Amino acid sequence: MNARSAMLAVGLGLLLAGCIVAPPPEPGVVVTPPTPPPVRVETLPPQPAPAYVWVGGHWAWRHGAYVWVPGYWATPAAPGRAWVAGHWAPRPGGYVWVEGHWR
Prior knowledge:
Number of domains: 1
Structural class: alpha+beta
């Protein structure tokens, strides 16, 4: 290996070492710095059928800003299941979105 190649390898190594400052976040997890806005009060459209459950809207973090995702009617994953709403949870450095799910 000549001196130029050795210097290039050392420089590249230092550059890559400088990029590692924290472990990567969990897949699909986004930490937002500002506090999420309050949840909007939604006017529910008519229920399509008795089995449908309302899944409320929420704020999503997209392209550096919060955007409102409206709620919708959904059928439970199985009879008797209840929807647990998603929410923004505080974390060091901001907030993370915890997805809603059927319970």
